[in-house]
Amino acid sequence: MRSPAHTIHSYLLAKDGNRPHLLAEAFSEDALLSMQVHTDSIAFPPLSQGRDAIAEVLVRRFGQSYENVYTFCLGPPPGKGVSAFSCEWLVAMTDKGSGNVRVGCGRYDWRFEDVTGLAERLAISVEVMQILPPAALEPVMKWVASLPYPWCVTEAVIARAADVVGVGPVLAWLASNNRRSCC
After folding, report:
1. Which residues does 141 contact at the CB level (< 8 Å), separation at least 6?
2. Beta-strand runs (E) in 38-100
3. pTM over 0.90, yes/no
4. Do residues 70 and 149 touch, judged by C-beta distance below 8 A?
5. Structural domains for the chain
6. Which InterPro entries would you find in this protein's record (predicted)?
7. E strand or H helix that includes residue 182
8. Is 183 a residue whose pLDDT tops 70?
9. Residue 89: which residues within 8 A CB-CB, separation 6 or more?
10. Are strands 27-37 and 47-49 parallel, antiparallel or unpaired?
11. What's the CA gap between 33 and 75, in Å, rounded?
12. Which of 145, 11, 164, 132 shows the shortest CA–CA distance to 70?
């Protein structure tokens, strides 16, 4: 049985590295992905049923549009044997077509199969997605490359972003959500 942390890490490696074959280590064959997008800066279908459909949406199509992808789960990884896990996330990436830099955040809500430890459901909410000009590439990538991957604490994300222009709305959402979840 896979641990929930291994399952999530496999998903991130698949998505960030454009490696759809790794989703076999993350999702059950008939897994369900639901997406709630609260911004006009990016679009995804609201539901995808099955590992192949999830691979098409979150890896193949995503990889056609974006590169230099870094996705972080904010907070400690889940313990072994949990059936559900939720965390905030941060992503930074570049648009292959325009060169624009995107920095966004939201929430993951995972449910895992008892026997295999694979994800049977993933709900992703996209709360904020900032689009920055190509000139933001160097400071944004320097910032995210300095963070521990894939598990990072919100305080480190915010502290290390001091010189990055344009990510204020992302940091504000993360700070606000971090206060609600920790206090």
Report:
1. 68, 70, 92
2. 47-49, 66-74, 84-95
3. yes
4. yes
5. 4-182 (3.10.450.50)
6. NTF2-like_dom_sf (IPR032710)
7. helix 168-182
8. no
9. 71, 72, 73, 74, 105, 106, 107, 108
10. antiparallel
11. 22
12. 145
**What residue type is 123 in one-letter code?**
A
Q: Cα(159)–Cα(112) distance, rounded to whole angstroms? A: 32
Identify the band that residue 179 occupies on the pLDDT scale cut at 50, 70 and 90. Answer: low
User: Using omega within 30 degrees of 0 as the cis cutoff, is the peptide bond preceding 4 cis?
Assistant: no
Residue 102 contacts residue 66 (beta carbons within 8 Å):
yes
**Mean pLDDT across 113-119:** 95
The string of pLDDT tens digits covering residues 63-94 is: 999 999 999 999 999 999 899 999 999 999 99
Backbone angles phi, psi at 119, to 5 degrees: -75, 130
Q: Which amino acid is at 118?
A: L
Q: Which pLDDT band holds residue 180 (cuts at 50, 70, 90)?
A: very low
Token pair, residue 179, equals: 């206060």
Q: List residues bridging with 139 in a β-sheet.
A: none
- Name the amino acid, one letter, at 129: M
